């Protein structure tokens, strides 16, 4: 599954794989060829598994194979299985004719697998084939008996010792085909590689063709013998062949389990490729096998895999450069768990973002569940559950692997004076909010009031954190990303390409204001106290807010990326961002069904992100926050907005009289 999703995609080219087997080591159980995770090429390594497989493991003799994994079940069904089998058999025959099989005898046991993986249901169809060359006329079995009955006691002891030595050496333990020569003078057995055939010739020697036999049956040699006989007939023109089926017990040669047999081969001058058989039977029939892993998997891990599936499929065709690691590791802080907060959280999870923290001090009201998708009627019963707590519980029910936490706290706001008795509590909230922002990578400003977004905007500018702002009117919405902090440019921009990065900082939520944020909650009617918006706005704005964050995360310049608009020349140029343009602000109206992108530079007089305000906060800390909270004009005085308003009020226009106008025309 990982190989298909992360590397292969829609590429259904044949893949080189490696199977493993070993000699039979139990009198009642055969040692089947096995595929392991290491049988497949690494999802990050371009080399085939055959090239990267380590040797020297006595229990894992490597065998080369080919995997044909189709993209659809229809393609799996339509595969020309006879042609595929013939193609692999041709490879075996070519290796025999060229002598490669003498140098690497594992080539005699090539195999192939066809498969289809349904990655949504964790269901797999597969069919193995072990190509066997059919000799014409076929070889016949003359005799077969336990090795202990064929050898004398001295020969059996010597053969066992030679086999154990061969198996104990890391150089030969996984070499499955070999020659056994036994001297008639002293019954000494010697084991050699197939390429040493000439050294085994002599009048005073018994010569047997040995191989690791995975079969346990006492009356049948195992499947590797078939192509072994084809090699023997082709390379050495022998009509009578004595073969040795090597089997073990407890890791040592066992002559009572091992077999010695005699085969009769009819020589032929025909050098054409023999016919082949080899498709594995399924309960006696020629049919593929299937298995479903869904029921045996941990449900949480199954959910994780299913949620990742859509994102990984994006990389197959639409977004090959999408960096999923960035998304899975980002930590998001959501200030506000209301209508917007619920929509943002759900969309974040859809992008594979799983570390989400909610901050909210409100409780779930009866009017909330129909508009706020993370809450149900049960959350409203009694006095109502805190939204930050209920939202976390809901996310974990939707997706158990999410790492989510809820913080119940109020955000200190300018224009909302506090008493001396409340100072300690408010300053504690300030420190808590600062710590939360500094420990997260991105912050969403989703609160109900304008003034509640001021302190988070300041803290994000101070810590140079990505800040995404979303706000709703009755039938309009605004989504924007804040620019980098004012003091970060001198340090970080030196390492960036100034031609690509914006030369000026992008503005924040308060940069266009000529007044400081003030109390907007006091003396409001019921319709002003509630968030009265058209129900379709929050899903639109919430989705755009998350898409804006993902665009920033995927952009090579990140928070320093300049603001694009819908007419930008890159038009989705993947050299800058694989997701298309990256605007600064998006404003839309459902009454007009319209949407525009806007660009606004940072203001030197901004009450939240200007260098003056950030520097004052760094110098005075808590006392600065208390001044801003308790004195409505403090921020305006600090940033020069007070003087600006005075200058604007005193400004007057001197109109010229008509005579001057006439003169001007005449001239």
Automatic annotation (TrEMBL):
UniProt entry keywords in alphabetical sequence = Autophagy, Cytoplasm, Protein transport, Transport, Ubl conjugation pathway
Instruction: Tell me the segments the record calls region Disordered.
Output: 39-64
Which InterPro entries does the record cross-reference, listed alphabetically? Atg7, Atg7_N, Atg7_N_1, Atg7_N_2, ThiF/MoeB/HesA, ThiF_NAD_FAD-bd, Ubiquitin-activating_enz
Residues of the THIF-type NAD/FAD binding fold domain:
314-556
Q: What is its main location?
A: cytoplasm
- Which CDD domains has this protein been placed in? Apg7
Q: Does the keyword Lyase apply?
A: no
SUPFAM superfamilies hit by this protein: Activating enzymes of the ubiquitin-like proteins
Q: Where is the protein localized?
A: Cytoplasm; Preautophagosomal structure
Q: Which residues form the Ubiquitin-like modifier-activating enzyme Atg7 N-terminal domain?
A: 1-297
Composition bias, Low complexity? 39-54
Task of the protein: E1-like activating enzyme involved in the 2 ubiquitin-like systems required for autophagy.
Q: How does it assemble?
A: Homodimer.
Please give the family membership noted in the entry.
Belongs to the ATG7 family.
Stated name of the protein: Ubiquitin-like modifier-activating enzyme ATG7
Organism this protein belongs to: Brassica rapa subsp. trilocularis
What taxonomic lineage is listed for the species of origin? Eukaryota, Viridiplantae, Streptophyta, Embryophyta, Tracheophyta
């Amino acid at each position: 599954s990982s190989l298909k999703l992360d590397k292969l995609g829609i590429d259904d080219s044949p893949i080189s794989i490696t199977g493993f087997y070993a000699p039979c080591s139990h009198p009642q159980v055969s040692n089947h060829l096995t595929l392991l995770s290491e049988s497949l090429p690494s999802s990050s390594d371009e080399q085939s598994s055959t090239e990267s497989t380590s040797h020297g493991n006595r229990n894992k003799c490597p065998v080369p194979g080919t995997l044909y994994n189709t993209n659809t079940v229809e393609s799996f069904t339509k595969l020309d299985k006879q042609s595929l089998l013939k193609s692999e058999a041709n490879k075996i025959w070519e290796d025999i004719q060229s002598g490669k099989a003498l140098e690497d005898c594992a080539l005699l046991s090539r195999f192939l697998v066809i498969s289809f993986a349904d990655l949504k249901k964790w269901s797999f169809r597969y069919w193995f084939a072990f190509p066997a060359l059919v000799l014409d006329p076929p070889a016949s079995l003359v005799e077969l008996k336990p090795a202990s009955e064929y050898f004398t006691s001295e020969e059996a002891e010597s053969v066992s010792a030679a086999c154990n030595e061969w198996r104990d050496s890391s150089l030969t333990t996984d070499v499955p085909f070999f020659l056994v020569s036994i001297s008639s003078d002293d019954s000494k057995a010697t084991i050699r590689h197939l390429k040493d055939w000439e050294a085994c010739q002599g009048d005073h020697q018994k010569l047997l063709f040995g191989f690791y036999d995975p079969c346990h049956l006492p009356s049948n040699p195992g499947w590797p013998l078939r192509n072994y006989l084809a090699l023997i007939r082709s390379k050495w023109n022998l009509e009578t062949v004595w073969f040795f089926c090597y089997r073990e017990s407890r890791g040592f040669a066992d002559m009572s389990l091992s077999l010695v047999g005699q085969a009769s081969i009819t020589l032929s001058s025909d050098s054409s490729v023999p016919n082949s058989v080899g498709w594995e039977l399924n309960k006696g029939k020629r049919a593929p096998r299937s298995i479903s892993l869904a029921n045996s998997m941990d449900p949480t891990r199954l959910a994780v895999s299913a949620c990742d599936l859509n994102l990984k499929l994006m990389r197959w065709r639409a977004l090959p450069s999408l960096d999923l690691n960035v998304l899975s590791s980002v930590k998001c802080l959501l200030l506000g768990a209301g209508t917007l907060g619920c929509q943002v959280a759900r969309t974040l999870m859809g992008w594979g973002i799983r570390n989400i923290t909610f901050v909210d001090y409100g409780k779930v009201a009866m009017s909330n569940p129909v508009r706020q998708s993370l809450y149900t009627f049960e959350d409203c019963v009694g006095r109502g559950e805190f939204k930050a707590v209920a939202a976390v519980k809901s996310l974990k029910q939707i997706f158990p692997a999410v790492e989510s936490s809820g913080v119940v706290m109020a955000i200190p706001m300018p224009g909302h004076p506090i008493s001396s008795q409340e100072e300690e509590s408010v300053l504690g909230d300030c420190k808590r909010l600062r710590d939360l922002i500094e420990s997260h990578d991105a912050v969403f400003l989703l609160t109900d009031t304008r003034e509640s977004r001021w302190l988070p905007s300041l803290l994000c500018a101070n810590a140079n954190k990505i800040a995404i702002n979303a706000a709703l009117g009755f039938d309009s919405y605004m989504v924007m990303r804040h620019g980098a902090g004012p003091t970060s440019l001198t340090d970080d921009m030196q390492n960036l390409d100034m031609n690509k990065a914006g030369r000026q900082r992008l503005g924040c939520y308060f940069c266009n204001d000529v007044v400081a944020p003030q109390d907007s909650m006091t003396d409001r009617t019921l319709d002003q106290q509630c968030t009265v918006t058209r129900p379709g706005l929050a899903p639109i704005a919430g989705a755009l807010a998350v898409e804006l964050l993902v665009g920033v995360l995927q952009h090579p310049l990140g928070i320093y990326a300049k603001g694009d608009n819908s007419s930008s020349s890159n038009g989705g140029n993947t050299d800058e961002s694989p997701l298309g343009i990256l605007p600064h602000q998006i404003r839309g109206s459902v009454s007009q069904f319209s949407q525009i992108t806007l660009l606004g530079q940072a203001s030197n007089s901004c009450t939240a992100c200007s260098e003056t305000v950030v520097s004052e906060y760094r110098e005075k800390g808590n006392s600065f926050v208390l001044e801003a909270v308790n004195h409505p004009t403090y921020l305006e005085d600090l940033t020069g907005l007070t003087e600006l308003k005075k200058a604007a009020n005193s400004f007057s226009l001197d109109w010229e009289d008509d005579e001057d106008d006439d003169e001007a025309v005449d001239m």
